[in-house]
Amino acid sequence: MKYDFFEKSKKELFDKNNYVKNYINYMLTKTNELFIYENMPDNIDVKRMEYFLQKNGFVFFTKDNDFNFYNGSIFDFDVYEKPKQINAVLQDRSVKTFNIENDGILICNDFLMNGLEKIYKKYGAMLCECEITLYMNSIINRIQYLINANDDNTKKNADLFIDKIYNGEFSVIGSNAFFDGVEIKGTTTQNNNTQNNIELTQYIKASAFNEIGLNSNFNMKRERLNEKELTLNENAIKPFIENMFNCRLSAIEKINKKYDLNIV
């Protein structure tokens, strides 16, 4: 059975839920390398820990028989909205309640434990709409005329003609009846719409990286950026990624002190 990659890929583009899910996973894969740890206990999967840390906003690091990190739900907040307990999901899918202060260390992705998934969802939804529009524009740009058919047979031939154009094929219709039965009207193509959509797509991609603290310049001027403009963009994106770094640094210092480790 022949696998139709084009039709499968097209369906994936128009499947918005799946598109956003894939975009989130793609971004989490790219940002998984943001932070590097050394001297982590051998049984700790650092890449998997970073994945859940970025995705959910926090993980709970503890030691029972060995060192582990867990996901879960935090609750019982104090007056400063700091969580005091966590219902952690263990390896066997059971749930165990830990006291955060006494039983381990809560590693936060950022100060408010928002994580990155919400950011990726927002930009993934916008990017999906842009790329669908760009795809549709690329098809519409092929159509230079609108065909008005006066009877069913002529419409059938016109539909066949349009289908071949849609599939990127040249088409020739040599029937006099077809030419006698159709009315051709020229269309005004809006080339600037495609250009604007490309710029918007690039802007969304750059904004997603900038919001999480990675420098990705988008040049609205359509010119080279000068050194001052580049520096301005770099300074604007630093606070969030520095907050992420400081949250990890603070947690690692507490882990080292509590369990006599030397993680850096």
Head-to-tail CA distance between termini: 53 Å
Low-confidence stretches: none
**Share in β-strands:** 15-25%
The overall pLDDT, averaged over residues, is: 84
Shape: elongated
Give the SSE order as H and E letters: HHHEEEEHEHEHHEHH
What kind of sheet is the major sheet?
5 strands, antiparallel
Radius of gyration: 27 Å
SSE class: alpha+beta
Largest sheet, order of strands side by side?
4-3-2-1-5
Question: In percent, how helical is the residue content?
Answer: 40-55%
Q: What is the β-strand count?
A: 7
Number of helices: 9
Would you kindly provide a written description of the structure presented here, covering whatever features stand out?
- This protein is of the alpha+beta class and 264 residues long.
- Helix content is 53%, strand content 17%.
- The chain is built from nine helices and seven strands, in the order H-H-H-E-E-E-E-H-E-H-E-H-H-E-H-H.
- The protein has helices at 5-14, 16-31, 46-56, 100-103, 117-140, 152-166, 176-181, 191-211, 227-259; strands at residues 58-63, 67-77, 83-89, 95-99, 104-108, 145-149, 182-186.
- The strands form two sheets. It has a five-stranded antiparallel beta sheet with strand order 4-3-2-1-5.
- A hairpin with a 3-residue loop joins strand 1 (58-63) and strand 2.
- The mean pLDDT is 84.
